[in-house]
Amino acid sequence: MEIDAWQLKVIIRETAKEAVEEYIRRSNPTSDEITYSKACRRYGEGWLDHQIAIGAAKWIRKGVYQNSPKIFSIKQLDDLKYGPSSQLRAAMG
Questions:
Q1: For residues 2-29, b (16+ Cβ closer than 10 Å) or e, as one string?
Q2: H or E element at residue 39
Q3: What residues contact residue 6 under an 8 Å CB cut-off, 6+ apart?
Q4: In principle, which of 53, 59, 74, 91 could form an S-S bond with 7, CB 3.0–4.6 Å?
Q5: Per residue in 32-81, pLDDT tens?
Q6: How far, in Å, CA of 91 to CA of 78, rounded?
Q7: Residues 6 or more apart from 69 whose CB is under 8 A from it?
Q8: Alpha carbon separation from 70 to 23, 38, 39, 52, 93 (Å, rounded)
Q9: More confident position, 21 or 87
Q10: What residues contact 12, with CB distance under 8 A and at least 6 apart?
């Protein structure tokens, strides 16, 4: 597989962007959290319920009680909904 300079630049830029986002998530884990109700508004309740049903979207409780909010990872939901960036797909494909 041969890539040109533009494709290499796009791959490096997208990889660096992912690395910075991962660093932010690791240094401040709460910045990547979203509650079930906010996730429903952002991604759609039907889509989110389907992802939970098939086991693709994982959640944790923010407390020990049954009515404690369900917390999802924004990164995980974005990856499920949108996949890799369109620029990276174009460069790799």
A1: eeeeebeebeeebeeeeeeeeeebeeee
A2: helix 36-43
A3: 91
A4: 91
A5: 899 999 999 999 999 999 999 999 999 999 888 999 999 999 989 998 99
A6: 20
A7: 35, 36, 37, 61, 62, 63
A8: 24, 10, 10, 12, 37
A9: 21
A10: none
Backbone angles phi, psi at 69, to 5 degrees: -65, 145
Q: Find out whether 19 and 13 touch, Cβ atoms under 8 Å.
A: no
- Work out whether strand 70-73 and strand 60-61 pair parallel, antiparallel, or are unpaired: antiparallel
Locate 36 and state its tokens. Answer: 């079930």
For residue 61, give Cα distances in angstroms to 6, 33, 77.
Answer: 44, 11, 16
User: What predicted TM-score, i.e. pTM, was given to this entire model?
Assistant: 0.71
Does residue 37 contact residue 43 with C-beta atoms inside 8 Å? no
Q: What angle do CA 39, 42, 48 make, to 5 degrees?
A: 50
Structure tokens at 30: 């709460």
